[in-house]
Amino acid sequence: MSTGTTTTTTREFVLSPAMCGANSLFVGRLGDWTWNAVSDACGVDALTARNADGEPTYLAFQLFDVRGADPAGFTFGDRIDVRTAVFACGAESVATLHRVAPAGSAGAADPTLEPAEFFEDRRPDCLYALNFNRWVSRSAPGSNRGLVRASPPGFTTAHLPELPREHSPRLACAQARQHLTLRDAPTAGEPGFAGFTTDYRIDPTRDLNGVGLVYFAAYFSIVDGALLAAWRSAGRPDAAFLARRTRTRRLCYLSNVDADTVLSAEVSSSLTGSPGGLTDEVVDVVLRDRENGAVVAVACQELTWGAA
């Protein structure tokens, strides 16, 4: 087991229009910061990495877990402090934890960042993101199917601390694969959406990244689009959708797909409470390849909506 000491890096940003909004833009920035942190900590350049055969290999996201402040709450000109820590998760994997704090806040001033803060003691004004990444390469030229594990020579995590076993992201990924949910625990409540399904065709003009893979952040928009379709089918107003506060966004990536793929999105939810006249809801979204039924991704959101 790795016993290294947690070290953190800090970056300060002023949010520009390309870094924020009620879509995948801010999540995309979190992903960029993950690649930067892993490159700095693990002895490789994630942007140009190649496997032992000299083929490109990519630091692919397998789990993206965002908690705390809603990313949609960030807007033009906000000043933020991003503190990042990197953790070992096996020979070909790595975990990265980010804390995004408003500039000048207590969170911005705190030089420490430990896993316990994310799992047990989150600051109410901060956003946290835990990422679990594995190296993958294409098994066939031009295809995004059947990606294989392939870490680049020189990649090392032996000097890094490990996350506590009870919080290993591998457990969440196994849960998503076996039970098609990322809920922290079984949730009792009245059904919200039940049995709603909608299709989404991968859009090559917006969903692919610079190497032709479906961009990890595009999945967040695809999930939100499926939620919006279910929302409208239930007769809920768009204004309530836009005003919702999302406390957690979790997404487990189980495979990538080609540009001509049609995804089937299954949406279900539980209404778990009504604090102050608002509605708490936990939403599950499962994305499948419509052609063969294979599960592509599993997502979960915890949100509050409605008028007090």
TrEMBL record:
<dbReference type="Pfam" id="PF18238">
    <property type="entry name" value="LnmK_N_HDF"/>
</dbReference>
<feature type="domain" description="LnmK N-terminal">
    <location>
        <begin position="10"/>
        <end position="182"/>
    </location>
</feature>
<dbReference type="InterPro" id="IPR024091">
    <property type="entry name" value="LnmK-like_bifun_acyl/decarbox"/>
</dbReference>
<dbReference type="InterPro" id="IPR040718">
    <property type="entry name" value="LnmK_N_HDF"/>
</dbReference>
<protein>
    <submittedName>
        <fullName>Biosynthesis cluster domain-containing protein</fullName>
    </submittedName>
</protein>
